[in-house]
Automatic annotation (TrEMBL):
It comes from the Bacteria. One of its GO terms (molecular function) is transferase activity. InterPro entries: CoA-transferase_III, CoA-Trfase_fam_III, CoA-Trfase_III_dom3_sf, CoA-Trfase_III_dom_1_sf. It comes from Defluviimonas salinarum. Keywords: Transferase. Pfam families: CoA_transf_3. This is CoA transferase.
Length: 440
């Protein structure tokens, strides 16, 4: 098999449900050998989604409550590079597989723990932190939703598994950083609490800045402040919400009734491109357009098209013109026009439509895998792509339960991993130089 970026790495994936298995999937996508450690009876999460998260992995059933199962797990850890788990804090230690146990048999092991709440959180560490529990505790169902707050429907449940998604992304990156620094630092233990990852990923909805100028607040934030200051109820009807969205960051109905999502704010030239794509060139030329990095006293207007949001004095006329223009064509025509104009926007799609979308398939954002349980199966593409990686779009299906058993003896006959040559305490990226050309 062709060499991949992580072809030399072996991973033991003890994860269940989403966060841990998703990290394992991303590492497998980059070529790592990932062995999924299953309890007797198989994974707890029995779903086609679980089979997608296990693509490219093999399966080994171990009863970690038995001495034999724990001994086999430690023997495997001595011949592995990474261990992933997302149990509650202390579970792996009680099983005899905690960070110290792993380092005792393999000083170079990189272990990743993804509990719901941090092991140092004396109040919540022991909680059975399902996705919805984390979301409820961190405000995902309440404070993070400006629409929900304005409509007075808090709390409002969403099934989006954001904590696991953000946690997996941070976890996978941390593992890669630790592996790259292993020659200097030796092995490492990493903890990525999913609650912390959720707050980090949604910081733009969580942070509160004292004396934040109204000109930088979204229209919804201004309306929330107004209603709170005047003691008014939060009872805005859904139909009225659109008028509290920025014209360049909202959904518009088109001639075919489909919504068209525009995200053309905050970057120089993007609002003008959107307006010109809509045939509103004169309006585009009228927008105040200057660097908001100027001293406030030197601003020629009270807002700039390079910054979010559109000023209160111009918002209604820009919004009205855009709404009328979008109703003149169907969404697919607008998608082609906005694409040619290089203005960020897209027609809204149902999941089934996205899975069959020619762009999604041609770009590799959606891949087709031949799964033994489900047949031809459309799945998410790679999280990261490597240039000239001919194997990137080739995905093996999820494993048959315990299929790694046949080669267990061969794995355990390998020599244990040698101890790394150093055990420093430097940062993962010490010595790396970065040229930052970003301006957003």
């Amino acid at each position: 098999m062709a060499e991949r970026p992580l072809s030399h790495i072996r991973v033991l994936d003890f994860g269940q449900y989403l966060a841990g298995p998703l990290v394992g999937m991303m590492l497998a996508d980059m070529g790592a050998e990932v062995i999924r450690i299953d309890p007797p009876g198989g994974p707890r999460f029995k779903s086609p989604a679980a089979d997608m998260l296990s693509r490219g992995k093999s399966s080994l059933v171990l009863d970690l409550k038995s001495a034999e199962g724990r001994a086999t797990a430690l023997d495997l850890a001595a011949r592995a590079d990474v261990v992933i788990e997302n149990f509650r804090p202390g579970v792996m230690k009680r099983l005899g597989l905690g960070p110290d146990d792993l380092r005792a048999v393999n000083p170079g092991i990189v272990s990743l723990s993804m509990p719901g709440f941090a092991s140092t959180d004396t109040d919540l560490a022991g909680l059975a932190a399902w996705e919805a529990v984390i979301a409820a505790r961190t405000g995902q169902f309440t404070d993070m939703g400006l629409n929900r707050r304005l409509m007075g429907i808090n709390p409002s449940f969403t099934p989006l598994a954001l904590a696991s998604a953000y946690g997996a992304a941070f976890g996978a990156m941390s593992v890669l950083f630790a592996l790259a620094a292993r020659g200097r630092n030796g092995g490492d233990h990493i903890e990525v609490p999913l609650a912390s990852a959720l707050l980090e990923g949604l910081i733009y909805n969580c942070e509160q800045i004292e004396a934040y100028p109204d000109r930088y607040k979204s229209p919804r934030e201004v309306e929330l402040d107004r209603r709170a200051a005047e003691g008014l109820p939060m009872n805005l009807p859904f139909a009225a919400l659109s008028e509290f969205l920025d014209p360049f960051y909202r959904t518009y109905p088109c001639a075919d009734g489909r919504g068209f999502y525009v995200v053309s704010c905050s970057i120089a030239g993007h609002p003008q491109r959107a307006l010109r794509a809509l045939g509103l060139g004169e309006l585009a030329d009228e927008l105040p357009d200057f660097s908001a990095y100027l001293d406030r006293k030197d601003w020629p207007a009270d807002w700039s098209a390079r910054n979010y949001p559109v000023g209160a004095g111009d918002r209604a006329r820009v919004s009205s013109a855009m709404k009328a223009a979008f109703l003149t064509r169907p969404s697919q025509e607008w998608e082609a026009i906005f694409g040619a104009a290089k203005s960020p926007a897209t027609a809204q799609r149902f999941t089934k439509e996205w899975l069959a979308d020619p762009h999604a398939l041609a770009s590799g954002l959606v891949l087709e895998v031949d799964d033994p349980r489900h047949g031809k199966m459309r799945q998410m593409g790679n999280v990261a792509w490597i240039a000239d990686d001919a194997m990137a779009a080739t995905k093996l299906p999820g494993p048959v339960l315990d299929d790694a058993r046949a080669r267990l003896d061969a794995i355990l006959s390998e020599p244990v991993r040698p101890a790394p040559g150093a055990s420093g305490a430097g940062g993962w990226l010490d010595g790396v130089k970065v040229l930052d050309l970003t301006n957003v």
